Amino acid sequence: MRSLRAAAVGLAAALLLAGCGTSTPQSELGGEPFALPTGPTTWEQTSPAWLLDGTLHVGEQQVRLGRDAEQFVLGATGAYWVRGSDLVFTSVEGETQEVAPTGWGNIAISADHRVFATVDQSRGPTDEYGTHVMQVAAFDTRTGEQLYRTPDEEPDRSDDLADLYSETMPLLDGVSDTRLFHAGRTIELDDGSSVPWNTDPQGGNVYEGYDGALFPDGYRVPVRKRGDRLVLGDSEAWGTGRLSPDRSTLFDVTQWPARAVAYDAETGERRQVDAPWDHLLLGPFDDEGSFTAIAQLIKPRAMTVVRAQQVVQCEVATLRCVTVSPVVPTADDAYPPLFLESGEGFY
C-alpha cells in the first residue's frame, strides 16, 4: 500500500526534486536519453496475456522472450520487459533488442497500452560516488516518442544515492494517458507540471487524480469490509481494492492470497468467481467486459505455498471463467513461473 511507503517515497521525492537546479552537459550525463523502440505491426488482440517459461502468450499469438524474462507489459507493437536490470523490447514479430540498462524492474503501462513508463538510472547527473540520479520517463508506445523525462538536476553534494535508493524502490505507482504517478507526485504529461500527493482522512498519502485514473487492473480504490460485504472506503488504511472499468464490481486485493470472490460495487454483496480453485490473483481488464486472472491452488494450512496455477479469463457481469492456460504445478520450494502483465504473478 502506498501509505506504508510514505516516508521512504517522500524522502526520495525530496531528493529528486531538491537538487541545486544546475544543468549538466550531455557529455557528463552518460549520453542522450534512450529512444523507445517500436515494431512494424500491432497486436491482433491484447487479452489474455500471460508469460510461462519464457513464452509470451497474447490471445492466439505466441512470442518467445526467454526464461530470464521477469515481468512484462504490452505496448502497441510489442512487449517491453525486464531482464535483470535491463529493459528489453520484443516486437509482435518476435524481434528482440536491448533498450537500456535502466537499473530497476519498475515499469508501468496505461490501460489502453498507449503510454509506457519506467524508472531509469542509465544516465543523468551523478553523486560523488558516480551513482546516477534516478529519473522517470514516459513514452508513446505507438511512435516511441518521449512524453516526459525528469529534468536533469544535480543532487546535493552530501547525497549517497545508492544507499537511499536501496531502501525506497519501487517509486513508480502507475501511468495513464495523461498522468504519471511517481515518487509522491502527480506529473502532467502534457506540460510536465506536478503536484505532491495529498493526505486521506487516516493520514495516508494519496496521489492527486489517482482515484480517477483507469489502470490495466481497473480503478485502484480504498475499500473497507462491513461484515461479509465490501464497500468503498476513504483510506487504504482499511484495505485496498480494484474497481472494474464499468464501476460495477469490486475486488479485495488487500492481502495475498485473495479469495476467488467479487463484490457488487453498489450493494457490497459478495459473489463467487467461477474459477477452478478458491484463490484468485487479479490481472488486467479488457475492453470486452472481461478480466484475466490466475486461479491458485493454495496448500492447506500453508497459505504462502502455491501448489498449482492456471490462467483464466472471466466475465465481469457473470463472473464465469474459462481456462486459458494449462495447469502449472509448483513444487513447495519453487517460485511459480507464471506471470500476468505488469509483473503480476506470485506477488
TrEMBL record:
Top-level taxon: Bacteria
Signal sequence range: 1-18
Keywords of the record: Signal
Entry keyword Signal: yes
Name the UniProt record assigns to this protein: Uncharacterized protein
Classification of source organism: Bacteria, Bacillati, Actinomycetota, Actinomycetes, Propionibacteriales
